[in-house]
Each structure stands twice: as C-alpha cells, then as structure tokens.
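Page 37, top half.
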Amino acid sequence: VLRERDIKKAIEVVKKYISELRDRKTPFKDLIIWKTLTKPIEKYKVKTAHVEAALMLKKAGRSLSLGDKIGYIITLNGSKLYEKAKPYNFASWDEIDLDYYVENQIKPAALRILEQFNITSEELN
C-alpha cells in the first residue's frame, strides 16, 4: 500500500497469503508463534498457549528455564486457545487450525493498515 499506493493490489496480496496458507504452501516455520517464559512455569496463574506448550515439552523431558523461547502451533484440538497450542516440533500440517491463522494473525496485521482505507475483514475473504 505504502510503496505502490494501490489499495486493490494490497487486498490481492493479503488474499494471496490467505490462499497460500489454506493450500499449505506457507512454510511451516512461518506458522510458529514464539513467546518467552518470563517466570518459572509453575508460577503462571493463567493458562496460556505458550505455557501449555512448555508443559508438553517438560513432560517430554525437555529442561526449561526462565527466558526460554517456546515455539508453538495452534491446532484444531481443543476449544480454548491454550488447549489448541502444541510445541511446533510435535505438530503436523494436518492438525493446524488454518482459520485461526487467517482470522487472528493475517487479517489483523493487514487490517491495521487497510482499515485506514475503509477496508473490512470481509473484503479480504
């Protein structure tokens, strides 16, 4: 948008990214969400996606400490976000929640700019 000043082209680029994701052409590594452990796992009072992924890693024998970066994928399993999180090295393409990535990652990032031009989420479908 900023370089070419072409809103229609910007919309097409976003649609292309969404289409590539749905067709599983997006590199798996681009779907990994990274968060840092800011305190020991047992000190977290609220269940969050990265802490649940960290607990899975710990259960699998990985040693974790303050400051470790936890990479996870959002899967189709579960209803709450923390239930859907899975360490990226335990996840496969077949279980990835593609709608989550479209609605909570791609669209919000694009709309931060495109909303300034009165573009809605529906126009990105």
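Page 37, bottom half:
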Amino acid sequence: MPTIPIEFHSHGIKKQDFSSFQTLDLETVNKEAEQENIFCILTISLPKDSIDEFIFFMQLYSSLRKAGKLSYIVGISLEGPLLSSVGGTPERGSWVPTKQEWEKIARCGSLGLRYTVLSPDAMLPGSCLSHNLKPDHPDIAWIIEMLLQHNISPALGHFQKNDPNASVECIQTVLDVAKKLGNKPFSGRILTDHVFNDMPLNFRHAWRTTEDKKARNQQFKTLQIEEWTMENLDERLGNVPAILLQSAHAGLITLCINFDGAHVDLGVCRRVVELVGSQSIIAITDRTDTNSLGGERLWRKEGTNLWYQDDGIVAAGMSSMHLQMQNMLAIGLNEKEIWDMIAFVPERILGLWQDDLINSPPDRFSYVAKNGVFSLPVDISV
C-alpha cells in the first residue's frame, strides 16, 4: 500500500507532551514519528495566557516544515479552547476567545493549523463556559465562518448534556454555515472529535474496567445494534450522535473514531463503519505515551489502556495506530475500509502533497501483516 498511517489526533509520543509546546522539540518528535512509520498531527491544549506563545510555535513549525525538517509532522491541531464540557481535557485549555483572539487563531491556518476541536453548543446554558460569555463574544456561526475561511476545520465535540435538542440545532448551524461557504459532500471540512465520548447518549458505548468487562457481553446484546438504521438512530443512540452519523453518511461530516476497544466498544465501532461507510471516518488513537497532558498528571486504572485524570475521567489513550489496525482486522473490516480510515481519508481531507506548505512525501510503504492472527478480549458478535 503506497502510504503509512496518519495519527490524526494524538497528544504525545514517547516522552513528548505536545501541549507543552513552549519546550517541545519538534525535530525529535519528527524523528520518533519516522521510527514508528507514521505521519502525525500534534494535538495541543491551549491556555488563554499562552496564545501569543502558540503563534510563535506555529511560526517555528511552519519554518521547519518548509525547510524539510518535519516531513512526518503533517499539521497541528487544537483541542479547545471553546469546550462546553472539559471532559478529560486540561481545564486551563477551556475558555471563551474574543473576536480578536479567534482572529489570531485563524491566522495560524496558513502556518499549518489543521483543525480545532470546539463545542458548537458552548453558548448554551448547560455549557461550562456559559457564565464567562459576554455580549461582545462572537456567536458560533461567526466562529465557524472565520475558521473555514482560513482553511481550519472545526471538529465538533465535548457537548453539554442538559439539552440535546438545542445541541442538535447548534450542529445544524455549523452545517448551514459550511454549506453557505460552498462545502461539498465528502470534502471533510467539518469533523468531529472522538465520537460517543463526552456527548449525551441513550446507550452504553464502552466497558472499560475489569469489572465492567465481566458484564459486557450480556449488556452488549441488549443494544441490538443489528437493528440500528439511519432512521432510528435518534431513538437508539440519542439526538446528538444521530445527527453526527447521519451527516457523515451524507458526506457532510467526517467522524473521528477510536478503535482501541476502550474509548468505544469494538462492536459499536464495527456497526458505525457498516452504517456510515469508511469514506466518512478517520481512525484516531487520542494517545499519549507519557503520564502528563498539558501539565496535568495522569494515571492508569487496572485492566485498561487509558489515561485518567485525578477525578476519574478519561483523558487520553495509550494505544498505537498499529494496535488499532489489528483491532480493525480482528472485527472483520476489510483492507480498503482500514486504509481509508487510517490514511486515505485523512490524506484527502488534509490535501497532503498538494500545497507549498507541505513537502513532497517521503518514501511510504505498508507494513501490515496480511496473515496476522489477532485475538480480542471480548466477543464482538451481535
């Protein structure tokens, strides 16, 4: 296969915490990505008082990228700052930018900022940011238009939980703005953060701890996922995940899904691929290899491959893209579906190798063991 996987959403590699961008050694990160045979986007949490330092960091990234020193770092992304729910992210990275601050962020699009995770419902009463809103803060339509005009994709996530119907209306506003600006189906201009995590749901999507996994098989059967259709997703999954999957099926949104088996159950992952199609999905790891994210210490629970904050909320994953590919093979996805989600869809969305910011690709190759045999800890049959 003439490509290698793209880590589309990751927080750290080896000892490098990407959110500590003030001291991040980009050339070391590039070397470590090359050793893993992956391209990567570095996902960063941005505190309000660090925005000018972030702009300097983006200028440095762009300069090194143009000099050919960062062939394996294909972009930068932000998780926040406009988040209705902190949901595992560093608390300092959730805040309400002014118009001037959004304009600063938007100008980073020309420097390699690829997307920013944001909550379209951040202005609703149920948002953790609602008490910080002022009359001169821009509305979501203005923000989305500003980002898209600077070639930065909004990635929708971290929703408030009090009013799913109102959140759906906010998602529709995003889609309407994108349509007004000429968004074409399957262009990938609108993304999601990790689907099913930190959003209102009508079903259980994951069994993470050792104790949870004991009840998983019986509880999973009650989901009756073989009966899920585009027409009944509102009832089965909830209004917010339903509009995301339905829009992805129509090519209006590209879903980001974690196939580590912990963020989302692998049986659920497989059904989403069946319903939506691999052409509208990107596989992500949400990984970091170090027990720190944006200066906050993380810890592990026994029996999981996840990092947790002190309050017990999942902060990040710790599985590699290679493990995700093994899981995809194990649940019966074919090679086309797998390579769509780990490489070809993100390549298409990022427009890699097509503009002067991005260098010519290095030699690329597939290293997938075609005859590999993988085992799963649980039964994913329906």
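Margin note: Confidence is low (pLDDT under 50) at residues 367-382.
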